[in-house]
Design goal:
Blueprint lengths: L1 E3 L2 E3 L9 H18 L7 E6 L17 E4 L1 E2 L22 E3 L19 E4 L3 E5 L4 H10 L3 E2 L1 H4 L9 E3 L2 H23 L10 H10 L12 H21 L8 H7 L4 H14 L3 E4 L2 E4 L5 E4 L8 H10 L4 H11 L2 H5 L3 H10 L9 H12 L2
Parallel strand pairs: 9-10
Antiparallel strand pairs: 1-2, 1-6, 3-8, 3-10, 4-7, 5-6, 11-12, 12-13
Helix pairs in contact: 4-6, 4-7, 5-6, 5-8, 12-13
């Protein structure tokens, strides 16, 4: 049985007292049954040590020492989805306990306490029956700090624990998903045939530049070397994204979305060209024009490590159209125009409302040159 703040917790009670906690309990056990009832037949939840068992010098597994922890915990209050709107008005620490036997108290005025006072975990893994031990399962997964359980952590439980739920189906699914993502990324960048957008080296350079890879627009930079560097950088971004808790960061999904080629790719490629060709540089906390020392944009401290993305978003924003026009005026030169392909020239021509119908690349180049290079 479960104890809440020294009182018996009755999940089936209809009183208004502890209604929020009962709602959370009902939602949580429904989630547990849905997630861990395998094919509707096996109703067990298995916990395992988060650390792999040690092996001795001969390679044999060492004996796992017993783990004994309190049958009482002090988590923050957790709310069900239907009570989520009360999060800002209700909070605080609660006392929860699991009692295997009948709960005990010395007198009617005292709080109930668990019997026994501790929970033993004697091996590397232990299994619990949902049909007969659901109160214990709920306590372990949602209340005890000894069990690392992500759904509960998302509701305010402490992010630690020596134990975790063993879910072979989920582990296999995550492994397959990870392998598929890695394969999609490799195919996208290595582009084995012309059906892939980055099979064309010019497209590859633009995307690599848009991703912030230095030297991407340098024609002396080997395209094959660029593919290797780009794959590494995207994978590093994926690792960094998983470490972040604020939802920021760029990884595989963001990269695959980017290679669908839109105007932002060409715009960011122009920015990387400006960096690679010493038109602008990042100096302490801002991007500046090297020739005249003028400021392109100041970068707040919180965006220091993603400064190129901040620059790109700033110049992309229609509210900063004047900054974008000034930037183009500093970057566009005869040598820059020489580096562009026909589709890039069409994109640039549209920026200045130049008619592009039936015009060759050379004609577009001359008209753009008259605006920026005269």
């Amino acid at each position: 049985m479960l104890l809440l703040n020294g009182e018996l917790f009755i999940p089936t009670s209809s009183s208004s007292e502890h209604e929020l906690q009962r709602n959370h309990y009902e939602e949580s056990i429904a989630f547990i049954r849905k997630e861990y009832s395998q094919d509707g037949r096996v109703h067990m939840v298995t916990l395992v040590r988060r650390k792999e068992p040690k092996r001795n010098a001969t390679g044999a597994l060492e004996e796992t020492p017993p783990l004994i922890f309190p049958a009482k915990a002090y988590p923050e209050i957790q709310l069900s989805r239907k009570d989520k709107n009360k999060k800002n008005t209700i909070g605080g620490i609660e006392s929860w306990a699991y009692s295997k036997h009948r709960a005990i108290r010395k007198t009617a005025k005292d709080d109930y306490g668990p019997d026994p006072k501790s929970i033993p975990f004697m091996s590397h893994s232990e299994s619990y029956d949902m049909n007969t031990q659901m109160d214990l399962i709920y306590f372990l997964l949602y209340k005890s700090p000894k069990v690392y359980f992500l759904p509960a952590i998302g509701q305010g439980k402490v992010k630690k624990g020596d134990l975790m739920v063993y879910d072979p189906a989920r582990i296999a699914k995550e492994k397959v998903t990870k392998e598929r993502e890695a394969l999609k990324l490799k195919n996208a960048i290595m582009a084995p045939d012309v059906s892939f957008p980055l099979h064309n080296d010019d497209n590859l350079r633009k995307v690599a530049a848009a991703w912030g890879l230095d030297g991407a627009m340098d024609k002396y930079q080997s395209a094959d070397d660029l593919r290797i560097r780009l794959e590494h950088k995207v994978n590093e971004g994926e690792k960094d994204k998983k470490k972040r808790t604020d939802g920021s960061g760029k990884g595989i999904a963001e990269f695959l979305e980017m290679i669908d080629f839109d105007d932002s790719v060409r715009q960011r490629a122009m920015m990387m060209y400006a960096l690679d060709n010493d038109v602008i540089k990042f100096d302490k906390n801002k991007y500046i024009y090297i020739e005249n020392g003028g400021t392109v944009v100041e970068v707040p401290d919180k965006h220091r490590y993603t400064s190129f993305d901040f620059l790109a978003e700033h110049l992309k924003n229609e509210l900063h159209a004047k900054d974008w026009e000034l930037f183009k005026g500093e970057v566009i030169s005869e040598s820059y125009l020489d580096s562009l392909k026909y589709d890039d020239l069409k994109w640039l021509a549209k920026q200045d409302d130049i008619a592009i119908s039936s015009k060759t690349g050379e004609a577009l180049r001359e008209e753009i040159s008259k605006i920026y290079c005269a």
